[in-house]
Amino acid sequence: MKILRMLASGLVMLLVLGLVNFYIGLHLWYLLDNWLPGIRAAVYWPVFLLIAFAYLIGMVPWPKAVKPAARLFKVIGSYYLACMEFAVIVLPLTDLLYWVMGLMGAQRTGFTTEAGVTVVVLLAVFLIWGSRNAWSTVVRNHPIQIDKRAATSAPLTIAVASDLHLGNIVGNRHLRRMVAEINRMQPDLILLAGDVLDDSIEPFIRNGMSDEIRKLRARFGVYAVLGNHEYYGGSIKQYTELMDSIGIKVLQDEVAEAAGLYIVGRKDKTAESMEAAGRKSVEALLDGLDLSRPVIMMDHQPTGFGIAAQAGVDVLLSGHTHRGQIAPNHWITKRLFELDWGYLRKDKLHVVVSSGYGTWGPPIRLASRSELIRLEVRLEGTRQYSEEPVHSSPVLI
Asked: Where would you find the membrane-spanning parts of this chain (predicted)?
């Protein structure tokens, strides 16, 4: 029954994608036919559909001989996904304008050319600005006060990165920038809050990304948790063993101790549907801990704030949402999650949700930025901060 539901969902998704892309393709056909009279539909439609479904084609587990072509398809398809979202927003507005002009008796000669030029220029601006937001990173500073004691009374600098999505699109170049910026912070602790991989582990291994990420340096170590995309990739055992070999512990419903504080790493929420045992509750993870000491928890998807606060967690770090990545998706994520990005104080719990360092699909962001988090954690006995942390000016890298 579960398989049938998945098949039905897949068919519905393909049908919707097909209808949406037919709508986009038809408008592009009208424009090209206006600009290039005589273009053949028999040539245009196969090429358009190949591009429209390139991302899905690239995700198919092809034989080794054709994998380079599949990777190219995935890159092309990722940019098309951004263009598709842009078109879904802009084209209905264009159609509405055309219809209103007709009702008003306005002259519509040349409308296709003028509207087409306008849309193409806006698309170019969208792609250029979106690429800038995706590849130029901002560092967000969050000063946090925890009224507990640890092994040190000195402030702790904790670097946090989530949603790297390392793979065929986000590669070593972006990863090197992240490693350099985090190491410049001279952090006491580095936490990777899930989705280090973009599904498949193959490009991570092929491109030697572990050689880059192992260069992260922190006084008390580097820890990570799983995100939903590690589950989708299906190579969790291989991934965790590889990370362990380079000195990065992936916590799977586990607790580590460093600098006199607890680092709690939850399995991603996806485990509830993809693993028979699911994942442990927050209460079970904290059972037996000395809650007079600080507790920092990583949970990739930002849910269960009230439960974490009641259980005694002091800082909860999440990602997953990308803050919608491309506007106006952030309106949706804002409704889906209690906090989809930024900082929230819930009772004594400090919640920080990152928009992520990398991107899923297109390396495009609008109303969202690639970001790293720098936590300045002060413990009992040190100078108090105000309730709300203040962001410093963005640092571009």
From this structure: 7-30, 42-60, 72-91, 111-130
